[in-house]
Give the backbone structure.
Amino acid sequence: FGMVAFTISGIQDQEVDALIIDLAGRQRMLQERHMKEVLLAQQYRKANSTPTTTELLETLETLLFGRKITVSWANDHEVTVPPAPTEAIRLAIQGQQELLVQFIARSDGFLKGTQDGPGENASALELLQLSDDIVAKADTLVALYDAWASARISRLVQWQILLGVIVGLLGVMLIKQIRAGNRNLESEVLERKQSEQILRESEQRHIQVLDSAMDAIITIDQERCITFMNRAAATTFHISALEAKG
């Protein structure tokens, strides 16, 4: 049962790891959408990037500090996201946060500027480059999480193998103990039967000796009842041994 529980726990951890990797990977898609929304807002003054910005920031906070979330793209599945498990992952998340804060500040300035002119084109190119840097950070974060999850799976497999070996050894030891116990029991039963047989044979020989004696022999118990009468006694008292016992 312990091994089954361990395996089930490992499977659940793998599912959570897959969702975390998916969550980190969505940052790339969200940032690309974020960039497009900023460009559309600058051109047409209609697009609203605030929901995307909020989701990007909240996702990074979740990956960094951990919390319970409801994953909408996984059938509203509730998942407890752990804090950043390694120092490398923590630094990658913080680096992405810093770039995202810069992007938000520059995009605000970009949207407040005029639509035409070399300055606006330069700002757009800077935003595109910054967005590409954020996407690259997101890819790095996914790679770090993937390596961490793979290492966890490897450790899980190693533990399962070790537990399997231990369970196998315990099973062999238990079988040996059961077999040894059965052999001891069979030996005791055989010894008991042999002892009972020897006792019966000894009693039979004793009765035969007494029965063949020339003198009259009678044995009585504590209640003065006859328990044995040999043939000589039966002849002397003119009564059979069976009648004497009765």
Summary: The CA atoms of residues 84 and 178 lie 50 Å apart. The beta strands are 67-71, 77-81, 218-220, 226-229. The chain has two domains: 2-150, 213-246.
